[in-house]
Specification:
- The chain is α+β, with helices and mostly antiparallel strands and 108 residues long.
- 34% of the residues lie in helices and 31% in strands.
- The N terminus is likely disordered.
C-alpha cells in the first residue's frame, strides 16, 4: 500500500515539475533522460530558498517572477536529467510536502 502511494506521489511530482518547466522556466521541448526517486528533506529553510530563487533568476534558469508554491518545513525533492538540443542538463526541484507545487529549483 505504501509503495502505491509513493508511486502516485512520484508521478504527481513529475507532472508538477513538467508544468513548472513549461510555465516558469520556458522549457517545453526536451527529452527526459532520467528522474531520481522522490525524496524528502528538512535541510532547506527560508534563507536557503531565498538564495536558490536569486540564483535561479541570475542564471536565467527561471523566467522573471516565477510562480513558486508556499514552502513547508518538510520538502520533497526530485531531480531531472534532460536533453535540450545537444545539451544534457540536470536540475533538482523542491516541492512542498502536500505536492501543491515547486518551491525552488537549482541547476546541478
Amino acid at each position: 500500500m505504501v509503495l502505491f502511494a509513493s508511486c502516485g506521489e512520484g508521478h504527481h511530482a513529475k507532472r508538477l515539475v513538467e508544468d513548472f518547466m513549461k510555465d516558469d522556466m520556458g522549457v517545453a521541448d526536451y527529452s527526459v533522460v532520467s528522474w531520481t526517486k522522490l525524496d524528502s528533506t528538512f535541510r532547506v529553510n527560508d534563507s536557503v530558498l531565498t538564495s536558490m530563487h536569486q540564483q535561479a533568476l541570475s542564471e536565467k534558469l527561471v523566467r522573471q517572477q516565477p510562480h513558486y508554491a508556499q514552502p513547508t518545513t518538510k520538502l520533497l525533492r526530485i531531480s531531472l536529467k534532460y536533453a535540450v538540443d545537444k545539451d544534457t542538463l540536470t536540475n533538482t526541484f523542491y516541492l512542498d510536502e502536500k505536492l501543491q507545487g515547486v518551491v525552488g529549483v537549482k541547476r546541478n
